[in-house]
Amino acid sequence: MIAAQLVPTPVGPLSLLSREGVVVAAGFTADPTEMFVRLTPELQSEGLEVVDDLGAASEAVRAYLAGDLDALDAVQVSQPGTATRKRLHAALREVKAGTTVSYAELAERAGMPRTAARAAGSACAQNLIAPFVPCHRVLPSVGGYGGYYYGVPVKEWLIAHESRAL
Fold first, then answer.
1. DSSP of the chain
2. Which tens digit of pLDDT belongs to each residue from 43-61?
3. Residue 135 appears among annotated catalytic residues
4. Sorting pLDDT into bands at 50, 70 and 90, what band is 116?
5. What pLDDT does residue 165 have?
6. Distance between CA atoms of 125 and 127, rounded to whole angstroms?
């Protein structure tokens, strides 16, 4: 069974989905089924149950919101993807709170050539576990915030929160 919890945040509810203590999806939506339908068919076949408390994952979110910017790093996550996408997601988790990188820099950190910036952008767009896999910390090299699956205002808030807490 996939367990889901809604955690309130200053930018709206964060849906957390977990399987056996491992976060498999997280996103800024009040409806956990929006995240559930993005999971693999195998995970969806397990069903979804909304619970009151997911333990470590929800505690980490509350600690992050309270200013412990490293709290999300300790939570185990798992999401599907090609070997390239998994390398990019792992590199994303290494981008420290309060800092940002460009898509080209993210590709380099993943051991890919600078020309792989498009793959980095795709990995961010397909990321199922925000903000644990912090795609909000990736900005276009031409300036601005770029896009964000949950809306640019959420991305702006996350970056500002991390800057304030440092």
1. -EEEEEE--TTS-EEEEEETTEEEEEES-S-HHHHHTTS-HHHHTT-EEE-S--THHHHHHHHHHTT-TTGGGGS-B-----HHHHHHHHHHHTSPTT--EEHHHHHHHTT--GGGHHHHHHHHHT--BTTTS-GGGEE-TTSS----TT-HHHHHHHHHHHHHH-
2. 999 999 999 999 999 999 9
3. yes
4. confident
5. 81
6. 6
Segment 2-36, tens digit of pLDDT: 999 999 999 999 999 999 999 999 999 999 999 99
Q: Which of 92, 104, 135, 138 is catalytic?
A: 135
Strand partners, 58: none
Taken in order of first residue, the domains within the chain and their CATH numbers are 2-74 (3.30.160), 83-165 (1.10.10.10)
Residue appearing with tokens 């910390």 = 137
